[in-house]
Structures are given as C-alpha cells and as structure tokens.
Amino acid sequence: MIVSGTQLAKEIKEKVKNDVAKAVEIYGRPPHLVVILVGEDPASQSYVKGKGKDAEEVGFKSTTILKPDTITEQELLDLIESLNNDDSVDGILVQLPLPAHIDEDKVIETISLSKDVDGFHPLNVAALWQKRDCIYPCTPKGVIQLLDKAGVKIEGKKAVVIGRSNIVGLPVSKMLLDRNATVTIAHSRTQNLPSVTSEADILVVAIGRPKFVTEEMVKPGAAVIDVGVNRDPATGKLCGDVDFDTVAQKASVITPVPGGAGPMTRACLMQNTLECFLRRQNDKR
Ligand code: NAP
Question: Ligand 1: distance of its center to the CA of 163 in Å?
C-alpha cells in the first residue's frame, strides 16, 4: 500500500480551510502566519513559497518577510520580537538553516512560545518530552498521521527510527513511544544496522542519504515511512532515503518521495498555525 502524503495533506488542508471559515465568523479574522526567509538559498526559497501557497489556500493571512543574508543576528531577533508583540500575528516561522553568523538556537528561543508553529522552542520540546500539552513539530506529526491514515496499529509494535535529529528523529521517536510502540533509535554509529531495522514493524527513516535503505534491511510486511529528501545521483531527480522500488515489494505500507512526508509537513504547519490562533483567542476570553 502506497500512502499518498499529497492526498492526505489535501484532506487535512480542506479540514483546516473549513475550520478557518468558522474561526472568521467567530473571531472576525483568519489566522495570520508570518514566514521569515534570510538569504537566497533556492531550496529554502521553494519551501517558503510552498508554505505561503498552502497558507493562502486554507484562508490564512500569509506574510513572507525576505531579508538579505547580511542581516545581523540582532536585527533578526528585533524583527522576531516585533512580531511577538504584534497581536495580529498568530504564527512565526523562521526558515532554517540560517547563515553561519546567526545563532539558530537564539532565534528559535526568541520566537514567542504561543506563536511557535514549528514546535522547535525549547519549552515546546520539553513539554513534548514531559508528555504535556505542546505544539507537535510538523514533520513528526505528519509521520504519525501517515501511519494512522494507513491504518497501521502503533501500540505494542516494534518501531525503529533511523536518525536522531532534534527536528525529526528524536521527536518522532517520542511520539511513537507515547503511542505505546517499543522504539529503537538508530544512528550513524549503530552497529549492524540491517539486523536492527529488519526487526521493525514500523520503520521511519530520516537520514538524508539517497536510497540508503534497501530491501534486505526491511522486515516483510513492515510499514516504512521515508522522511528523506535527496537528489538521486544517477538521475538528478528527487528521491528518499529508501530504495522505493525494491522496498515496496516487501513492505505492507510505504510512503513515496516526493509526495509523502514533504506535503504532510506543510499540512501540519497549517494545523499548528490554526491551533496557535485558537489557543491565543481562547486565552483572551
Ligand atoms: P540530520 O540532522 O542530518 O540527521 C541525520 C541523522 O541520520 C543523524 O542522526 C545521523 O546519525 C543519521 N545517519 C546519517 N548517516 C547514517 C548512517 N549511515 N546510518 C545510520 N544513521 C545515519 O538530518 P534531519 O534534519 O533529521 O533530516 C533527515 C532527512 O530528512 C534529510 O534528507 C532531510 O532533508 C529530510 N527532511 C525532510 C523533511 C520533510 O518535510 N519531508 C523535514 C525535515 C527533514 P548521527 O546522529 O550519528 O550523526
């Protein structure tokens, strides 16, 4: 079964759009998402464009702020502070990565917790790990929704996550754990990786290496979620971390790249922005 992230993202955005229409009736305005892009990295430009397009599609007010990569760290922090203090702004996202002279941690910490639509603020991360109310980071949230859409039972299953980054590997592992999977986190120092992955009922791959996971590494009938976004060195086309053609023969569920975790990340950003908006409106009451 190939689970289309594109299709599920469409359904999620349709639901957000309906909820936005209701929110406008109740609160008199739609949620407002501000995305800041520093510099002219083509991949970041394309991600930011996609986020703006989705935001408009669901009926948000969408603002993209473009800054040259000569902006100082302090100027960027001041800009974020002014957006924090702007009551008409509900979500703030700073596209990563940032130029080397800007401390990403400082930037993430400066975004108001109540407007942290990416779920990267340290207090949001702490809340996730303490199983408290939080904004779930977009990509991991998308992974879990893809599994649910495919009807994969998570509870009691053996899940292996390859990758331990703060934005994908670690939070997705925690979210699987909270759904009562038994989770193993693999990484670049894991010994005999195929022996670990071939035990997995659920395999989530977030490495950043084209077609790294091959058929021999996958348990027959496993659910495989491919988060990776790479260029295939042979064709130059987009591909995932999983060798889709061979693994699809063995897995019971698999996500394609493109069209899997990518569109889901954007759809979850729309869900998170609506959530931040509704929380802020309810806090005012
Ligand atoms: P990252 O920060 O570079 O982390 C990569 C992880 O993979 C690290 O934990 C690393 O282990 C592990 N790793 C690298 N080589 C390995 C190997 N040979 N065997 C086992 N583990 C290995 O990357 P990331 O930010 O998590 O992103 C991972 C991929 O997902 C990238 O392709 C990225 O573009 C993609 N991504 C997609 C979306 C989306 O919306 N679809 C969002 C975010 C990321 P160590 O910790 O030991 O170094």
Answer: 5
Q: What is the pLDDT of residues 50-70, one digit of tens each?
A: 999 999 999 999 999 999 999
Over residues 157-174, mean pLDDT: 98
CA distance 170 to 219: 22
Alpha helices, DSSP H, located in 4-103: 5-27, 42-57, 73-84
C-beta of 146 in contact with ligand 1 (< 6 A) = no
Cis peptide before 97 (omega within 30 of 0): yes
Amino acid identity, position 276: C
Task: Confirm or reject: Cβ of 205 under 6 Å from ligand 1.
Answer: no
Active site amino acids = 51, 95, 118
Contact 34, 89 (CB under 8 A): yes
Average pLDDT value for residue range 12-29: 97
